[in-house]
Design a protein that fits this description.
With 429 residues, this protein is of the alpha/beta class. The chain has helices at residues 2-6, 8-20, 60-63, 72-84, 93-105, 118-133, 193-203, 217-220, 226-239, 258-262, 288-291, 312-324, 327-347, 374-377, 382-394, 413-427, and strands spanning 39-43, 46-49, 54-57, 111-115, 137-141, 185-188, 207-212, 242-246, 268-272, 282-286, 354-356, 361-365, 397-398, 404-406. Strands 4-10-9-8-7-5-6 form a 7-stranded mixed sheet, sandwiched between helices. The chain has a 4-stranded mixed sheet with strand order 1-2-3-13. The structure holds pyridoxal-5'-phosphate.
């Protein structure tokens, strides 16, 4: 009830949106029951909605704003670039500069290609893997989301009655319009090194790539056991398959990405979100001998086009954002994340709620069971999580509908206190 009173402007805007956008949306991740809030402006770790409420933003556009909204240094370069021209049918120096910064930080990155979204990055990474190996099969994990792309939209959120065996999950379409995964995609349980090893021993010769999130975001910000990623590395190497880390979100897990945290080098890494400094972006980075298959003039070349690839505004904003995100800044952001997780653990002690995440990420899971894989994740009380996120919104706190959030360099101690106070109130502890 209070939500309706506080969000009259958003309700009105949503009614208008529904007339021209199917269901009111162009983007599935922001679907909210009863409706999403409409934003007027963002600044640091806050947003102001169309009803004039100043809200603490823990979503930060699905984790992409590592230095918050509208950082003046980003605004400056993006505005200057826009003034000089926002798009050209050729290159600008910032594309090379951002590539150099990524190569400097990410241990496995020797060459880079830019896209406009994480989904496109995954799409081209898979094409590269198939081009390099000459093989077809992609292995993904149940419950992992790798973007809105046909080859990976399998078993992202399958219903219980379609699961199949835990150690040999069914390959379940996550969308209408997918025309069959036969022989192209296999699905394995996340975090199960033994099943992965057995699968690769039996079928590895046909596998082009194993694609894995080093933190399974949609499953519940699940940080995998270190041996799972190591076994993925080893079994891909033995089978001659490529290992793709999808770090579209997990890049923020540590300075240099998740691979620095785990000390494991994938062959290809897909990036997105934060590397664009608040503008649309994706990136594929990897070993030189692999990435060079996209080089013009190569025999059997993997092609990769895109009108806005390496867009000058995105590249300038991304470059400045990476420069601002020094190791020390990263450490501060991560320390705040760790503090929040530890306080949340304290608050939820003895309750059927677990806390997950790493680096800047935190999530409350309404389930007494610690989440290792997708089947654990479905035990969460999603309706409770939704109502809790609305209750927090009534307290001027924006968090995802599944109770996930993240810190940024702009997050303040006061915001942390009010988040923890809000959670305390809704838990009644
Ligand atoms: C792990 C992962 N991969 C890929 C994507 C797709 O990125 P985009 O939404 O930029 O297409 C997402 C988006 O949330 C993601 O979380």
């Amino acid at each position: 009830m209070r939500h309706a009173e506080l969000t009259l402007g958003s309700a009105g805007r949503f009614a208008e949106a529904k007339k021209v956008l199917p269901g009111g949306y162009t983007r599935d991740a922001i679907i909210r029951d009863p409706y999403p809030i409409f934003i007027e402006r963002g600044e640091g770790s806050t947003v102001t909605d169309v009803d004039g409420r100043l809200l603490d933003d823990w979503c930060l556009n699905a984790t992409s704003l590592a230095i918050g909204h509208a950082d003046p240094r980003v605004v400056k370069v993006a505005t200057e670039q826009t003034t000089r021209g926002s798009a050209f049918h050729t290159m600008t120096g910032d594309e090379t500069a951002l590539a150099e910064l990524l190569i400097e930080r990410i241990p496995s990155a020797e060459m880079v290609r830019f896209t406009n979204s994480g989904s496109e990055a995954v799409m081209i990474a898979i094409r590269i893997a198939r081009g390099v190996t000459g093989r077809k099969l992609i292995v993904k994990f149940e419950g992992s989301y790798h973007g809105t792309y046909d080859e990976v939209q399998w078993s992202v959120g399958p219903p219980r009655d379609k699961f199949g065996p835990a150690d040999d999950p069914n390959v379940v379409a996550d969308s209408g319009g997918l025309t069959g995964s036969d022989g192209r995609v296999s699905v394995l349980p996340y975090n199960d090194a033994a099943v992965l090893e057995a699968f690769m021993a039996a079928h590895g010769e046909g596998v082009a790539a194993v694609i894995v999130e080093p933190m399974a975001n949609r499953m519940g910000s699940v940080v995998p056991a270190a041996d799972f990623l190591q076994k993925a590395r080893d079994s891909c190497s033995s089978a001659g398959a490529l290992l793709i880390f999808d770090e579209v979100i997990a890049y923020r897990l540590g300075y240099g990405g998740a691979q620095t945290v785990f000390g494991i080098k994938p062959d290809i890494t897909t990036l997105g979100k934060s590397i664009g400094g608040g503008f649309p972006v994706g990136g594929i980075v990897g070993r030189k001998d692999i990435m060079m298959i996209t080089e013009p003039g190569r025999k059997g070349r993997v092609t990769h086009a895109g009108t806005y690839n390496g867009n000058p505004v995105t590249m300038s904003a991304g470059r400045v954002t990476q420069e601002i995100l020094t190791l020390n800044v990263h450490r501060e952001i991560d320390a705040m994340g760790e503090h929040i997780r530890s306080e949340l653990r304290h608050l939820t002690e003895g309750l059927p709620i677990t806390v997950s995440g790493g680096g800047p990420f935190f999530k409350l899971n309404a389930s007494g069971r610690k989440i290792f894989n997708y089947r654990d994740a479905v035990s969460c009380d999603k309706e409770w999580q939704r109502l809790a996120s609305l209750a927090l919104l009534n307290r001027d706190i924006v968090i995802s509908g599944s109770l996930a959030g993240c810190t940024a360099s702009t997050t303040t101690d006061m915001q942390v206190s009010s988040l923890l106070e809000g959670v305390k109130e809704i838990l009644n502890v």
